[in-house]
């Protein structure tokens, strides 16, 4: 009896058709997760789709879009580069997607090159208008690159104010900085950076809650204001509230500003939070002499490279900083745990 049952079961098993998921099966689930903004899940499904069908470039392109959405711009461009290497002109949209990623990374010349390549090789492509707008924006940024938020060449009075304010901030002369920044906020209300620097000087002078209130109120009106997130992250770290600070820091980790002042601010904040490798990458990308001669540049770049295993470069940066800013020499050095 047992033998008969086993024999019947064996015959039934031979009629079972195994389900082998195709690349399209995984891809569909990946798209659904992406549309629901479940990005980590989308990445897993799309990776499975690529494994199941490595010769289907659409899957890699879609995964790059997810990476762009979560701020993993380098990973996105690596995928797109591989697609272009294998399929070339069949997937010219990759050029625009790469241009967009490079723009987010602040690599403007690369962004411009790929946007122009897309327009040259596509014929009435889906991203033609977006590419033209990107190029216009890049050209505008290039024109203003030497005219950063703290450099208004056409307004001599503002230039004098800002340079004097920076001197006091760099030398930790908080009361003098507050007085000057207060004047600037009244004389140049459109110069928003003065308010953020005022909040920073206020915090450092001991009025911590007032400084936090200023930035939190600002953030209600502009939830994506980089300098508010930078200041609040710094304030919370200095108060020892790392968990709350990380809410701001995680947002900044996916932000790649185009203005040098904002680039420096993000790099400094990542260093304060202990994300040293990311901070080193951000500091390394800074080329503007306006920011590479700042006290915070020398201090936090030095700390970051020290904690990523380069003590000789750290010491070199620290010594340069001390030469320009004697108050820095009163601190313990890049080896101190911050």
From TrEMBL:
Tell me which SUPFAM superfamilies the record gives. TPR-like
Query: Which species is this record about?
Result: Halobacillus halophilus (strain ATCC 35676 / DSM 2266 / JCM 20832 / KCTC 3685 / LMG 17431 / NBRC 102448 / NCIMB 2269) (Sporosarcina halophila)
- Which keywords does UniProt give here? Repeat, TPR repeat
Domain of life of the organism in this record?
Answer: Bacteria
Q: What is this protein called?
A: TPR domain protein
Instruction: Identify the InterPro entries for this entry.
Output: CellSynth/LPSAsmb/PSIAsmb, TPR-like_helical_dom_sf
């Amino acid at each position: 009896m047992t033998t008969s049952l086993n024999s019947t079961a064996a015959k039934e098993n031979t009629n079972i058709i195994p389900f082998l998921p195709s690349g399209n099966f995984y891809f569909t689930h990946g798209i659904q997760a992406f549309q629901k903004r479940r990005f980590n899940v989308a990445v897993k499904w799309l990776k499975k789709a690529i494994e199941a069908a490595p010769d289907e470039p659409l899957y890699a392109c879609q995964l790059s879009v997810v990476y762009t959405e979560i701020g993993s711009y380098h990973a996105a461009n690596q995928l797109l580069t591989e697609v272009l290497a294998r399929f070339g002109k069949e997937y010219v949209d990759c050029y625009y997607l790469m241009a967009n990623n490079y723009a987010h990374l602040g690599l403007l010349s690369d962004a411009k090159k790929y946007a122009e390549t897309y327009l040259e090789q596509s014929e009435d492509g889906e991203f033609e208008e977006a590419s033209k707008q990107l190029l216009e924006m890049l050209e505008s940024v290039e024109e203003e690159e030497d005219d950063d938020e703290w450099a208004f060449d056409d307004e001599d009075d503002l230039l004098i104010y800002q340079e004097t304010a920076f001197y006091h901030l760099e030398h930790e002369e908080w009361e003098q900085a507050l007085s000057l920044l207060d004047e600037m906020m009244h004389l140049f209300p459109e110069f928003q950076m003065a308010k953020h620097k005022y909040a920073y000087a206020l915090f450092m002078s001991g009025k911590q809650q007032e400084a936090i209130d200023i930035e939190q109120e600002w953030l209600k009106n502009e939830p994506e204001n980089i300098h508010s997130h930078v200041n609040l992250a710094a304030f919370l770290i200095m108060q020892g509230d790392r968990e709350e600070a990380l809410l701001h820091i995680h947002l900044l980790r996916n932000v790649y500003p185009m203005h040098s002042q904002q680039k420096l601010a993000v790099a400094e904040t990542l260093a304060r939070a202990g994300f040293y490798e990311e901070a080193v990458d951000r500091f390394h990308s800074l080329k503007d002499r306006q920011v590479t001669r700042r006290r915070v540049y020398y201090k936090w770049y030095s700390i970051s490279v020290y904690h990523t295993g380069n003590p000789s470069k750290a010491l070199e940066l620290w010594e340069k900083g001390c030469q320009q800013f004697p108050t820095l020499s009163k601190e313990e050095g890049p080896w101190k745990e911050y």
